[in-house]
Amino acid sequence: MSKNILYIAMSLDGMIAKDDHSLDWLMKAEGEGDNGYNDFYSGISSVVMGNRTYQEVLKMTDEKPYQDRPVYVLSRTQQEDGYAHFTSESVDSLLPDLQKKHGGPVWVVGGGEVIKDCMASDSIDEFYIAVIPVVLGEGIPLFPKGTKYTELKLEGTEVYNQIVMLHYVKK
Q1: Which residues fall within 8 angstroms of residue 137, CB to CB, at 6 or more apart?
Q2: pLDDT, tens digit, for every residue of 78-100?
Q3: 4-170: which CATH architecture?
Q4: C-beta atoms surrounding 84 within 10 Å
Q5: Model-level pTM?
Q6: Between helices 91-102 and 112-120, what is the axis angle to 10°?
Q7: Where are the domains of the chain?
Q8: What is the pLDDT of residue 32?
């Protein structure tokens, strides 16, 4: 059975980005190797994220991200960049379609509103949350106000130098 997996980093105070949506603080994190990313990435078939997250990820690299996987960007406005597939489709229909179309788990990258929508439709099956040892004090929360109450079960933890990876599944 294919799954939808949230794999994301957050600050110790639960933020996934600064107020201006920037992610520069992530580059300062002291991890170990790839922090388990390559193992995770090798098991996913496609990538879904919000438009603001996509725009910030583009700023972090000279190349288009995730070039060897189909990338879907949730956006209310029609766009095209010749790389990502922009869509206004709801996550509750998009995610199962992507699992069938690409034959495997879908990585939900973020941001907060996409995660909130996924939680509302019970679309996330596994949660990998890397806790970065920094307190931002303000920013975009991992789980925005109004996110659906959801009980999780801890499957395990990994420590990569200063980063702790939490792995949860839905109960």
Answers
A1: 13
A2: 888 888 999 999 999 999 999 99
A3: 3-Layer(aba) Sandwich (3.40)
A4: 21
A5: 0.93
A6: 90
A7: 4-170
A8: 67
